[in-house]
Structures are given as C-alpha cells and as structure tokens.
Amino acid sequence: MSKKYLITIKPLEPYFFGGEQTFGEGDDANYYAVSLSLPQQTTLMGMLRKEILVQSNLFKFDYSYSSDEKLKINEFIGERSFDIQKISTEGKRSFGIIERISPVFFNKNGLFYNLGPFDHDVVFKIDNDARSYLIKEQRQAFFLENLNKNYEKEIIVRKDNENFIYDKSEVDSLFVPVQKIGITKNKTDKEDEEFYKKNSFMLKEGFAFSFIAELNEDKFTLKNNIVYIGGDGSKFSMEVAETDNTYEQMFSALKSKYKNSLTLISDALVDPEIYNYCEFAFTDTVDLRHIITSTGNYKFEKNKSKSLRYSLIKRGSVLYFSESIQIKNTENILNNEALKQVGYNIYNINKE
Prior knowledge:
The chain has one domain. Helix content is 17%, strand content 33%. The longest helix has 15 residues, at 41-55. Strand 6 (122-127) and strand 7 (130-135) form a beta hairpin. By secondary structure, it is α+β, with helices and mostly antiparallel strands. It contains eight helices and 21 strands.
C-alpha cells in the first residue's frame, strides 16, 4: 500500500550542495567552490535511498554486501540510482519502495513557500500592433525586451489557501551565505599548500526544505532521523509526517496570470523543440550533473560516477501560446513519467 510523506529537512550546519563550481581535481582543480542554494532532485532521491537502507539496517559503510544483501537492497531502493542517460532507452525505472518524489519547496512551521512565475510583475498589452509590457512604474518597452535591471525575476511566494503572497521582507535573505577561507595541502609528493575559498549556505531562521515522497509501505515505515546530504555530508534534521496532499494539489494555483500559458513549477528536461510550439517564452536555465551508482558500489569515482552535464529549463519559467494545439504539443513533450518520478517536468496551465 502506498503512503505519502511530507519530508522536511532542516540544516543544522552550513550546507554545501555541489554544482558546476566545485574544487574539482587534477587539471579541473579550482580554488573557489560555491554551493547551490537548493538541493537537486537527484540529491533528494539519493538521500532518501540511503536513509531507507540505514533505517532498514542494510547500509554498510565499507559497502561489503553479500549477494543476499544486494537482493534485499534492490527490493528496497532499486538496483541503480537515477540516470538521465538511461531514460531515452529504458524509461521509468524501479526505485524499490520509492514510487516518486516531488520537487523541493520551502517550509516555515507549516507554511509552504515556492518559487513564483517569472512574469509575476509583468503586464502585457497591444500597442501599435506590437506586443509590449509595463512593469510597476508603468515604464513601457518592447514585449519582454530591455527588462528593467531592478526587475526581480525569481521570487519566493507563500501559499495562503489558493492564493500566493509575495512579501519581500518575509523571504529576504532566505539563503544566508557562509564563507570559509583557508589553506590546505595539495595531495602531492611535494605537499604544496593551496589557498581555497568556499561558499556554503544556511537558511533563514525558521525555514527548512520540504518535499513529498510516495512510498510503498508494506515492509517499511520511514521515521525521523539525522541525515547527511551533499558532497560534504552536511548535517540535517529530517522530520517525517504523513500527508494526503500531492505537490500538484498543493501548488495547483501557482501559475502565470495570463491565459494560454504554461508555468513550470519544477525544473524541466526537454528537447529544444518545445520552443517551436509557443509564441514566446520567459525562461532561464540551470545545469544538472548527478552521481550514478549501482547496488553495492556507492563509492564516488570521478570519471565513472558523474553523469554528463544537462541544461534544464528552470522552475518559474513561463511559455505563452495562441492556440490550444500548441499547449497540447508542449504537454506531450513535458509528460515524461521517468522524469516526473524524480520531481522534474511538473507544470501548471492557465487556459482560456
């Protein structure tokens, strides 16, 4: 039987989620590393898979699993981690008792927050047969060109029943940077000293990350625990509560105010042809590179464990249409169950 959990993870120390700007190794070595502000979906899936093994007394730090233990692991979390490269040939895969996870969002004592549509403060109009926009002070320009430099495209809104409220003071400085500067010894025969600079984050007081996981619970019940996430093993408290909600239900009203539009409420991996089916798109991109592991082989190996780098359309992006068939074609591109299973390609539509 499936059960949905609201999983809330709160950092207990500065966290570091690896992206493209890490220290690297060898020729790729870099003295400056910057954490992502949000955990990637693959990070959440990896944390959940490991925690299920830990709470099932199956996890071993030395990875010395017997054949019977590997079969048990496959039953609980699946044989392999998420792998974008396999989606085109294998489609949706089994993650054992994990049926799906939602995109990450924010939680402050039971109040939920998410990233709003990029066009939240944009007003479109027709002027001399040319589409244009007005922003706040009613300054006019061509349609989504020359946006005012002070325009905040990415905002975080609070869910208030079916409405979403943006209060800048409430979410101001949500991500608190924590900088560490030091000198380390290079692991060479010469033991050279190297300068490094590392930017981690804490969340503003009271805030935490949340996501919803749907688990097949016949043989397992997820419990609260301390978990370690990211390349540095940052410490988080994990609180688990049963819920009847899905992410799509919770954020169904989070969409552009303009008719015939599609708003991404998660990052999305799609073919560039998606832009052929819309009149205009207000989008941004984010890179994704994730770790690939298989049962009993969880040790990170740089040249084998890292996926290729993929470019995703960022959550909050909005696509606009003039015909219903365009919306349908776009949905067909986005509706990939293997990606939705891990919390990608989730969207809302505002139709006529």
